[in-house]
Amino acid sequence: MQDKDLRWAKQFGDFAESLTMYVLGQLKDMSVALIDHVGADVIATKRKDTSVRYAISVKGRNIPETEGKSFNFSQGNIDKLKETAETFGMIPAVSFVFVDEMEGVRKIRIFVAKLEDLLRMSEDKEDERVGFVNRSTDGFSLRYTESDRSRWLSRIKECPQVAYMEMQFNELEGVEVF
């Protein structure tokens, strides 16, 4: 018997894309569409100003409690997203969808930002407020650990260039459906 469904990665990726579309469509008042293109998963435009369109790469990850809360967006991902956005006259953006239990309860966290803002922040060594994005040898990494030493999640929540949303799982004790 398998410990994990062999289609879990695909299912979680589909979920992350659908959740991104929901968040942008319902909470950010945008028109959205799922696309199947190298480098981008979702396209979006503001309903009131359709002249600005975004090509969005969605990255989802279920992060175990034992691992650091970070994700590397590779140079290959950057290049593919930029190329797709340029081809279709869009602004490249990234949506990270992470599931973790960092605060003692399972949460889904969504971080959405324009690629150019993430790259600019990753190069800024002087501003401690944006230390949650760092340039790496292969792209950039986003980290959101929240501890006594690092307050990255708090800084992300305060950052005007990052749209941050979260959802928490609440399970009723004693209810056993399956």
How are the SSEs placed, and which strands pair?
Layout: H1 8-27, E1 30-37, E2 40-46, E3 53-62, E4 70-73, H2 75-87, E5 91-100, E6 107-114, H3 115-123, E7 133-136, E8 139-143, H4 152-158, E9 163-168
Parallel strand pairs: 3-5
Antiparallel strand pairs: 1-2, 2-3, 4-8, 5-6, 6-9, 7-8
Overview of this protein structure:
- The chain has 178 residues and is of the alpha+beta class.
- The chain has a single domain, classed as Trna Endonuclease, Chain: A, domain 1 (3-Layer(aba) Sandwich), CATH 3.40.1350.
- The chain is built from four helices and nine strands.
- The strands form two sheets. The chain has a six-stranded mixed β-sheet with strand order 1-2-3-5-6-9.
- The model has no long low-confidence stretch (mean pLDDT 89).
Question: What would you call the structural class?
Answer: alpha+beta
Number of helical regions: 4
Strand order of the largest sheet: 1-2-3-5-6-9
Number of domains: 1
CATH class: Alpha Beta
Beta-strand content estimate: 25-35%
Question: In CATH terms, what is the architecture?
Answer: 3-Layer(aba) Sandwich
Please give the number of β-strands.
9
Instruction: Detail the poorly predicted runs.
Output: none
Q: Report helical residue fraction.
A: 25-40%
Q: What does the radius of gyration come to?
A: 17 Å
Question: Which term fits the overall shape?
Answer: globular
Distance between the termini: 19 Å
CATH fold-level name:
Trna Endonuclease, Chain: A, domain 1
The main sheet comes to: 6 strands, mixed
Mean pLDDT over the residues:
89
Taken in chain order, the helices and strands follow as HEEEEHEEHEEHE
